[in-house]
Automatic annotation (TrEMBL):
Keyword Transit peptide in record: no
UniProt-recorded name of the protein: Molybdopterin dehydrogenase
Pfam families in UniProt: CO_deh_flav_C, FAD_binding_5
Entry GO MF terms: FAD binding; oxidoreductase activity
Lineage of the species this protein comes from: Bacteria, Bacillati, Actinomycetota, Actinomycetes, Pseudonocardiales
InterPro entries: CO_DH_flav_C, CO_DH_flav_C_dom_sf, Diverse_Substr_Oxidored, FAD-bd_PCMH, FAD-bd_PCMH-like_sf, FAD-bd_PCMH_sub1, FAD-bd_PCMH_sub2, Mopterin_DH_FAD-bd
Regions annotated as coiled coil: none
Source species, domain of life: Bacteria
Species: Pseudonocardia bannensis
Domain FAD-binding PCMH-type residue range list: 1-174
Assigned keywords, A-Z: FAD, Flavoprotein, Oxidoreductase
Length: 295
């Protein structure tokens, strides 16, 4: 199929972007790696595509205090290769799983967040880290916590006249470790199940906080505080000791329906295994004597 007819504009300022979006019949174009297939299948028929790539300032990528700020037109591959990504270790762990290198060279970080596919990696990373998203609209700018931004499958807190202009990812502190993994039929396919984890320990190695976000398992990323779960696994936090607890968690939060690629039960088993493994890795990486894990 081919896209239905549409008008195309390329504004030079954010005010002009918002003016073009007024009325709610426009759609923002940044990288286009999610939008163009939607148009081609005629799942979306916007009257106007509003290309934001010429808007000054939206291509910014910088460290700002205790966050790394990513502008709306920053490509995924740009962030993946930037030294700044090392300050947010969960990003370089997750970005290689986003599609293929060629797609990441064009697709944007904020575009993936705005698309809000429930099997996408970057929304899960944003939720696990407690990222903040900046949205501009007719009533001005507002900052939205990532967990509040995603409200359903392909659905966010941004309205049809809004545009996501940036995302702020917290920089990792001392005693913080991360884990990320997903299972897909082929690399670059949508995840059948995936997890992002973050663990913080004190100077003695005691667990202070643990967070886990699952994706591909519901209609949006699902985040849980799993501090007590990790503490209850014993001093070694071995993967088998975590598995029973993560299986219980899977039964609670994995609610996506089965399909040709896997049943709900299968996805629960995948999630339980991945969650136990990546919590263990995150804890190990957070310890004061941690060394790089080759796996």
């Amino acid at each position: 199929m081919k896209a239905a007819s549409f008008a195309y504009v390329r504004p030079a300022t954010l005010d002009d972007v918002l003016a073009e979006l007024a009325g709610g019949d426009g759609k923002v174009l940044a990288g286009g790696q999610s939008l163009v297939p939607v148009l081609a299948m005629r799942l979306g028929r916007p009257a106007t595509l509003v290309d934001i790539n010429s808007v000054e300032g939206l291509d910014g990528l910088a460290r700002d205090g205790d966050v790394v700020r990513v502008g709306a037109t920053v490509r995924q591959r740009t962030l993946e290769r930037s030294p700044l990504a090392a300050a947010v270790p969960l990003l370089p762990l997750a970005l290689p799983f986003v599609g293929h290198r060629e797609l990441r060279s064009r697709g944007t970080v904020c575009g993936s967040l705005a698309h809000a596919d429930p099997a996408a990696e970057l929304p899960a990373v944003a939720c696990c880290l407690g990222a903040t998203l900046e949205v501009a609209g007719p009533d001005g700018r507002r900052r939205v916590p990532a967990e509040e931004f995603f409200v359903g499958a392909m659905s966010t807190g941004a309205g049809p006249e809004d545009v996501l202009i940036g995302a702020e990812f917290p920089i990792a502190g001392a005693g913080e470790g991360h884990g990320f993994a997903e299972i897909a039929r082929r690399h670059g396919d949508f995840a059948l199940a995936g997890v992002a984890t973050r663990v913080r320990v004190d100077g003695d190695g005691a667990v202070q906080q643990a967070r886990l976000t699952g994706f591909g398992i519901s209609d949006r990323p699902v985040t849980r505080d799993v501090t007590e779960l990790l503490r209850s696994a014993g001093p070694r936090r071995a993967e088998p000791d975590l598995r029973a607890a993560t299986a219980e968690l899977a039964a609670e939060i994995v609610d996506t329906g089965g399909d040709a690629h896997g049943s709900t039960g299968y996805r629960r088993r995948l999630f339980a295994v991945l969650a136990a493994r990546e919590l263990q890795k995150a804890h190990r990486r957070a310890l004061p004597t941690a060394t790089e894990d080759p796996s």
